[in-house]
Amino acid sequence: MRVKLPIRKINDYNTVAKEEVEELIELSKELKGLKVVHVNATSYGGGVAELLYTLVPLMNDLGLNASWEVLEAPNEFFNVTKKFHNAFQGADIDISDNEFKLFEKVNKDNAEKLNLDADIVIIHDPQPFFMPLFKDGKYIWRCHIDTSNPNFNVWNKITFKAADKYSKALFHLNEYVQEPFKQIAVEFPPSIDPLSDKNKQLSKKVIEEIALKYNIDLNRPIITVVARFDPWKDLKSAIDVYRILKEKVDIQLLIVSAMAKDDPEGWILFEDILRYAGTDPDIHFLTDLKGVGHIEVNAFQTISTVGLHTATKEGFGLVISEMLWKQNPVVARPVGGVKVQVIDGFNGFLRNDIKELADAIYEIITNESLRRQLGKNARKVVKEKFLTTSHLKRYLKVIKEVIS
What are the residue boundaries of the Trehalose synthase N-terminal domain, all occurrences included (predicted)? Predict the structure, then answer.
């Protein structure tokens, strides 16, 4: 299924990254008319979809012929690929022969059904990984997962079967690269869109209206976690951190999430986390089920005193950069891509233990001058490394290399 795309203009980014815009315009001159197709599992929910809603339209504005296709598959397929996702992150999971056959069949069906006639096809994550087996072309694999320590039984069974069909493999960090991709791997961090509804500057009136609608008190400190309901996000630890702090500070905890179509496990975990939180009125569950969209997420991050991220595994965690962009420090566990966004003591704190996480947040909440300095540094880090323009430049360079 082809995704309908919004219109994005590269010149709009002159307000935040003028030099990079000029580089992009120059770099794209040799790629005019080049047909590029992105393929992933869902058009809604999760970081990959958000990235593509910005990157694909901007590729078009730069003169490429870019499009985005989404897999058509039954729920059973997404149950299987969620197991792949967890196994790639190290979970001790077995994949049955029938599950493997379903994965292969859905990939074959989609290779025949989707419009993959292009100069370059960019495959995102494991769900469409086998498609090059059934359709000739030049392929790039974009892995958005922390594969630093995968379950090699599952990893090898999947990756070795189709790896030779790919010209390049893009990973968030070099430490995620495993065989059979070491010869074609590129370190490739993602980005946030500073002009999107989720990251643009909101008026004070809009922010206050959203806070009132969701019963959030702007006069008390706010800890915000933005994460999917996924076992690796460890949201129970976030609640534990809040409960430690609640004994000393009158705080609120916002748990902000979206229910992704390709993650059936998320609904089960959502119910589990709700039960764990109990009836505390200062723990707010803010999801798309309650009408939360990108503007609302923006408002919640903007009004936050501090961001919290308790994930035990994290491919990158763009929600970190989103929070930092709004000049708020982040306290997080030093995992995956989190540790290249949060610089300990500069724009937040990296801690492992629940009590240490709580202590770091307490220090930020009770030291206004520290909080301001961390927040100032926070935006600076994102501007230098993790904006859309930097990400798009990396894509154009890789595409140019594969084509030539």
Answer: 38-178
Architecture of domain 204-385: 3-Layer(aba) Sandwich (3.40)
DSSP type of residue 201: P
Whether this model's pTM surpasses 0.70: yes
Annotated domain spans of the chain: 10-191+387-403, 204-385
Domain 10-191+387-403 listed as CATH 3.20.20.60: no
- Residue 321, helix vs strand vs coil: helix
Torsions phi, psi for 67 (to 5 deg): -145, 170
> pLDDT per position in the chain (404 positions), as tens?
899 999 999 999 999 999 999 999 999 999 999 999 999 998 876 778 889 999 999 999 999 999 999 999 999 999 999 999 999 999 999 999 999 999 999 999 999 999 999 999 999 999 999 999 999 999 999 999 999 999 999 999 999 999 999 999 999 999 999 999 999 999 999 999 999 999 999 999 999 999 999 999 999 999 999 998 988 899 999 999 999 999 999 999 999 998 765 566 777 889 999 999 999 999 999 998 899 999 999 999 999 999 999 999 888 999 999 999 999 999 999 998 999 999 999 999 999 999 999 999 999 999 999 999 999 999 999 998 999 999 999 999 999 999 98
Is the peptide bond preceding residue 329 cis, with omega within 30 degrees of 0? no
